[in-house]
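G., the chain you wanted modeled:
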Amino acid sequence: MTRVSLRRRVIAASALVLTGALALSACGDSNDSGDSGSSAAAKTSVDSKLAAMVPAAIKSDGKLSIGTDASYPPNESVDPASQKIVGWDVDLFTAVAAKLGLKTEFHNAGFDTIIPGVQSGKYEAGVSSFTDNKEREKAVDFITYYSAGTAWAALKGNPKGVNPDDACGKSIGVQQGTVQVEDLQARSKKCTDAGKPAIKPVVRKQQTEVNNDLVAGKVDAMAADSPIVGGAVKKTGKLQILGQVYDTAPYGYAIGKNSGQFKDAVLGALQALIADGTYKKILEENGVESGAVTQPAINAAQG
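Predicted structure as tokens:
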């Protein structure tokens, strides 16, 4: 959601400590995604060796229970027509699960409840555009699968003349709990230290609200993860990207520390999908191939 310790959506350290109330606070309906919206994912075949690595407790019911905050298109969101959770993040992990002989059941949850939910066993995985960082690795293991950075967008033509490197006095939309909030705070301090007006952050609960604010002209620009900004530009046809992507870091699947070989199985499935071209096809279908990785890893946070 900019620093080395990114999410792209950030969880405060205190939120990683599991509490009963927080663990039970996930919201929303489940979404059985055994049949993926991606043609490439739908053709994924089982790898018997990798499937054998999945712990019995996880594969006992033939499906994975997954926590996701489905308010982050095009990564993960709710399709208004079908009310199903969709997105390339969903498609890719559904293909990972298929490689392991499993189906997926996505649960729409508050972002900051997902990692505690994985810790408690409520979810067998967290798939929600998490940035792998050292703080989160204290709570869960991560298998990296994508590289994202922060990008800015404005209305076409940039009518308010926003410069990400000098946005003093501008109103900038961001989603709460993201690294972009902290990024704006740091940039705003530079403004005030230089005697310029502060940046005016407009913080929304969901990224879709941020996107809508910008399209409606309620903010001068927005900052979000690079695939999110790219998706909004493509979908609305009314926005343009400003400047360059910066502070790139890997997304990772959150897996419980006590899940045995499961993280190794997920890593192997990703490697297989990269090797057979499925991974690339899923990203290309969604226009997010610029963040593709060639070597997924376990707990690869830097710093």
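Residues 179-193 form the longest helix (15 residues).

Shout if anything looks off.
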